[in-house]
Amino acid sequence: MVLIKEYRICMPMTVEEYRIGQLYMIARHSYEQSNNGEGVEVIANEEVNDEVNGRGQFTEKRIHLSSHLPYWIQSFLPKIFYITEKAWNYYPYTITEYTCSFIPKFSISIQTRYEDNNGTSENCLGLTPEESESRQVDFIDIAYDEIKPHHYKEAEDPKFYKSKKSGRGPLPEGWMQSQQPIMCCYKSVNVKFEVWGLQTRVEEYVQGAIRDILLLGHRQAFTWMDEWYNMTIEDVRNYEKDMQEKTNMKIKVCLENAEDSEKVKETSQPQTPKSPKTPKSGSSTPSAEGRSWFNWS
What we know:
By secondary structure, the chain is α+β, with helices and mostly antiparallel strands.
């Protein structure tokens, strides 16, 4: 059975404010997280028109993330590995799809809708009775859910942050029951990995990774509020375009450097053996030390 989760993420803002904050957060976060050839490369960003959903924005991105995966997944992936993200944004409704050409039986599909409430809509995404019955609903609390230690910054902690421009925050315990304004992101996440023996492990890992990303990103969208609060949609689209160009250049340079480094390694010949463990001349088998299929770190 495919693992379906519905994440509900409340935010101390309106749906219209969130539209600006989300675009700002994604553009800035993508740039900051793009290092050593890994990150988010934008391939397309253009307007679209749909008969059902009306006018919207289509984006296609390549997410380079090999070293962020556990070793048991890295062990069967190529060195230059990316996932393709295609998104159709008909705000306040969006559709996002993730695929990988190297693993054709792997896919993620996400439906999202934004509403001005605190997560009380039971089926705003229009799931079928079967989908509603099998889904797992998970409320994400941006202030009190535990975040990975290496991502924690006190300046980005909603328990302490107070916006100078809006006066919102810090968020006390139980804030979702009393905060005004408040809105909720409803995300139905469907993960498929149809490979015998790995399906459950990979699907659970991906759902956990998605939850971590959603928690971190929404904490940042709120605690970066003073950076985007007075922006118009035109302002944030210009910011998005500028950051996408910088991010693409950052990734391109890193990838080119990595490719050049690999070519140097392939053509260079070791002059003296560095240790008794150095492979014999002509051997191309890499060491497997420290790379266990079941190593999660």
